[in-house]
Write a structure and sequence with these properties.
By secondary structure, the protein is α+β, with helices and mostly antiparallel strands. It is 17% helix and 15% strand. It is built from nine helices and 17 strands. The strands form seven sheets. The protein has a four-stranded mixed sheet.
Length: 454
Amino acid sequence: MRPSLFHALLLLLSNQTSSAAKGEARDWSDKELEDHPDPNDENYEGMIYVGKHDPETGKRVGFDHHNGISFIFGTSFDESHKSIEEKDLLAHPLTPVHDLPEADRENILKERRHKPVSETGPKPFGHVDTHKLDGGVVPPKVVHVDPFFLDAKLVTNQEFGKFVKATYYETEAEKYGWSFCLVSFVDSSTVIEEGDPEAPHWVAVPGAYWRRPEGPQSSYKYRENHPVVHVSHRDAAEYCKWKDKRLPGEWEWEAAARAGHYGPSNRTLYTWGDDDSWETANRHANLWGDSEFPNVNEAGDGWRATSPVKTYPPNKLGFYDMTGNVWEWQRGGKHKARIVRGGSFVDSLKGDFNHAATLGARSTLHATTTTANVGFRCAKAPKRRTEYDFVYHDEEIHGELAIEDQFKNVHRIPQKGWEDRFYGGDDDDEEEMGMPRRKKKKVVKRRERYSNEL
């Protein structure tokens, strides 16, 4: 007599149950994973892809290979970057030990495991030494970033206004009731409060926020295409989240700003090259100019304060305003020292006042700081395949799965997320030692990368 479909299903289920009881867990190897999405099929309006391209076809390299970018990160004034060799850019920081060239393996492992010890003692997490002129990280070093998308231009007043209208969002400058403005731009009838002693040219203006950049007597009208300012780090992050994006890391930002000038042989001082004349700078960036700061601005570049986005030529990758106009919030850093990059319209060319507006220009601000010269742009990571991992049940975190009563009877407790989970196959040694076997379940693997950006 042929077995019925019902009996066949019961037999199949019993075999699966007995396999789980014996600890025969599935092996989630690369063979069972789906292919990575093709990065060439993914595009976003107004965003530019930054990653490795095939030199022959010009297409984006997929995630089955190293498709990120390595470059020399840090200040543009430190000449020590010239001692870095081109081959150092080819070493991926996450390359397995056995894939490293045997001749270089020992030195690379030594660099990974034994960081140089500072003569002045230990530094707090995230600490970096900076150059006095542009605030860039010293000494320059080779870093690697995975592929990403980045907005070609800064977020404008018009775009931020749509976000506020759709979400009824209130910026931190509105909540606090004031924001920082450059003293020479404030109307004489505007009541000002005491400013920051470390920045004497900036004053706290009651009523200043993104709609009223210089205080109650001003307006953002006719400046809809200018970058939005008077936004805090949280304001910028909330906007990016609303757009299903995020703030860029400063390694990502600098990779986009350097636009292919990644090695020691072609690394440049500014986005337009190494020409440090104001005649050239005025054609490429919105800076203060060759004038007396903060009272005189001859507007040699055409603007005294912020300028419309896309006013100046883009860099070789197509990004606008990577130098000057407004500083840009980055993800990472600490609450009291969030990172901003790029310089602004109040900065100089060589660091005569404020920051030198080089490709390494960097500063930090308190996360709640809002000023008339800080804006942002958004980034986004390309799609990847979903990978899986296993997690064991932890009674301290997830609660008990079973309890024993006074008669030594064990009662199972239904628990959301842990019903019908099998016992792992790696716990046979624990069972032989008299330890209880642990349940585990399949979960989506989290992609985490520890760096000084986060």
